[in-house]
Amino acid sequence: MSVTAGAPAAPDPGLEHPSLVPAQLLAAADAAPERGPDGVGSTGGRRRVQRSVRDWVVDVTCFLLALLSGAVFVGAALSETPPPPDGLVLADVVAGVAGCLLLWWRRRWPVAVAVLLALLGTFSDMASGAVVIALFTVAVHRRLPVVLGVVAVGLASFVVYTVVRPTDEVPYPIVLGFGVLLSAAVVAWGMFVRARRQLVLSLRERALRAEREQVLQVDRARQMERTRIAREMHDVLAHRLSLLSMHAGALEFRPDASPTEIAQAAGVVRASARQALEDLREVIGVLREGPDGSSSTRPQPTLGDLPALVEECRRAGVRVRAEYRVPDLGSAPPATGRNAYRVVQEALTNVRKHAPGTVASVRVEGGPGTGLTIEVRNPPPAGGEHLVPLPSAGTGLVGLLERISLGGGHLEHGWTADGEFRLLATLPWPADWASA
Prior knowledge:
The chain is an alpha+beta fold.
C-alpha cells in the first residue's frame, strides 16, 4: 500500500500501521481483565482460565475493532492509484480475517499469536489492528526480553512489508522511523499497564498478609491473656483452697474433736470458700473494665494488705512471725505492692503444703529509692507429713519468678546452709514515687 497525502501511513507489523490504529484498540486490550503478568495466577496463558463475562465483552470488542481498523486500511489501499492487484487484496482480506480470529487465543498464547500476526503483517493491511492488540498483550503479560524479541520480529516483518508493498510518496526512513516510534509507544503503554497491575497485586497481597498477621496477633494476645489469667488464678486461689483442704482434712481425720473446734474449723472453711469466690471474681474482673479503664470489682491487693494476709494465715493455724521495716506499707507503688503480696501469699501457701507445723518468718523492708525486699523462711517439717498431701502443680514458684521478672525485680529460692528454706524477692521502688 502506498502512502498519499490523504492516506494513512504503511502498517507496522510489530506495532503496525501506526497512524491508523485507533486508541480504542489499545484501550480495549488494556481493559481486558488479565489476572496478573507472566502467568501469575491465571494470566500469561500458562494455565487455561474460563472467560468471565467481562472477558467475553473485551474479547468481542477487540475482535470487532480489529476487523473495523483492518477494513479501513484495505479501503485506503483500494483508493490508491493504481490499486493493489486483486489477488493481493483477496489474500490480504483472507489472511487479515484469520489474524483477527487469532485474537481469541491471545490470552492463552500471547507470544505465539503475536508472532503469527507479525508474519501476516508482512503483506496484510487487514491484520494491522490485530497485530497492534497482540503486541500490546505481550507487553502487558511478558517480561521485557520477551517483548523486545516480539518487537524485533514485528520490525523485521515491517521491513518485508515495505518491500512487498512499497510507497513512493513518503521517504523510506520516515516510514521505518514512524513504525519504530509507534512500536515503542505501544510497548511503553503495555509495560505501564503491566507495572500498574503488578502494583495492584502487590498491594492486594500485602493487605492479605497484614490481615493474616492481625489474626495471628489477636490469637497470640488471646493466648497470652489466657495464660495470664491462669497464673493469676493460681496465685489467688491456691492460698484459699489450701486453707479449705487443710481444715477439711482436720474435720475428716479428727472425728473426736470438740464441737467448738469443729465449729471453728467449719467457720474457717466457710470464710475461705467465700473469700475464694471473691478472689475469683476479682481475677475475672480484670477483663471487665469500663470505658474509663476503671475496674468493676474491688481493688487489687497492695503492700498494705500484708498484715491482714498474715493474720488470716494465723487464724487458719499457720505459725507466722512477721516483721515490717517499711515506714508506710500503703505508700508502695501499686505494682510493687501487688507483687510483694503475691510473693508472701505463695510462700505461706507452700509452707502450709510442704512444711505444716513449722514457724514461718516473714520480713519486709525497704523504701523509696532502695527497693523492697521480701524474705520468707521456714525450717523443714518436723515429724510426719500431712496424712493427705495437698495437691500441687509445682509451677507456683515458676509463675512467681516470671511475675517478679516482668516487674523488674529478682527472685531467689532454695535451702540455706542452716537447713532452712528461703524465698527472697527484691522489687523496685522508685525514689520519686509519691504515695497517693
